[in-house]
User: What shape does this take?
Amino acid sequence: MLVSFGVQNYRSFAARQTLSMAAGTSARQQERFSFASGNSLAPDLLRSVCLFGPNGAGKSALVQALHFFQKFVISSAKDSQEGEKIEISSFRFDDAWRGKPTEMEATFIFDGAYYQYGFAVDEERVWSEWLFTKPNAAGARTRRLFQREYDEDKSAYAWQISKTYVKGAKELWKTSTRANALFLSTAIQLKAEVFRDPFDWIQNFLYVIESPERLSPQFTASQCSKYGLSDQILDLLRAVDIGIEKFDIETKEFDLDGISSNSSSETARRVVARLLGGQMEYQIKSYHQGQDGTLIPLDFEDESDGSRVVFSIAAIWLTALECGFTLVIDELHNSLHPHALRLLVNMFQDPKINANNAQLIFTSHETSVMAKGFMHQDQVWLVEKDDAESSKLIPLSDYKVRDISSFQKAYLDGRYGAVPKLKEYVHG
Assistant: This one.
């Protein structure tokens, strides 16, 4: 369960901005909007959060930051060599931020324990890294598991690793950690089971989708083929009302190298490689009902954009709900009818469907989710840029909103900012 994510000096973010999943007093009283976390440091968390803002405001940059955070934790120790540059993009519109490290920090709860993990990094090195925890036990206090800081004067790291709570080959883990790699990643590579839980949450319980339109349908097809999820997927497709009455899936050996490396397929490569291991390819044929009642087959590529998006995210959606993932998805509204969008979001908000406390974080321009009673103001965040081109995250709860359903018109009228400042188009 994600509690918060903070980012500083990354892409369009200059000063630190923090997205919080903590539920306020009003939201925590309604099971539809929040759930009990089981940890006193963040007792109630939101089931879903939506970020609104114009194009270029920084919504996608926040999703990209979460993706970088996860990817760097998973791969920094194994996918790079000593001296290689770290692919980080800092804020570019102010000289004061150039040359300073990018900082990211996530707080989350896993198996009842609260974790606070973060790092500061530039292209050359990790400047600092830290991990704190508070176990879910009576009388337990917050513990520092480790902390490292680079000392420029000494050209060396200052280390603090708990002797009480961290057992194992600490010196080996330290000496094996490269300047351009994370200690957490390195220690896990060297079988440091003491850090397994926080690493596992970042790797396996945080799922970031940078664009639903770039997703491959292969994961959904694989879940149907391997685990018999076809009926559940079909129920979801029918609920969204995209006209698919049936689908068939055929399997064959999958050639991962056969996918081109253009930008739109790179996400497909990553998803397939991560979830399928690059072993099988699944060919999908869908069926629609004709006027005479017969089922008419279609190649999946001939389906509408909306149908392909819903099918492609269907298994990820159901898996997140079943396993209690934190799912982050950019521009969820793309190619979806507003009713379909609301149905998908409602699955996370329904305590009966979302019995395992999965969380959904999504960006959108579609304000229909602001219908009365559908979302709470704690679940709405506005993203806008200031005069210095720096993105700001502003919770709607900062404003005095009488009724969440009045937000739609007020937002579009520009009363809360976070809308594009359009000018008349003049040709010639």
About this structure: The CA atoms of residues 10 and 348 lie 29 Å apart. The longest strand covers residues 280-289. Residues 260-264 have pLDDT under 50 and may be disordered. The chain has two domains: 1-211+330-421, 213-324.
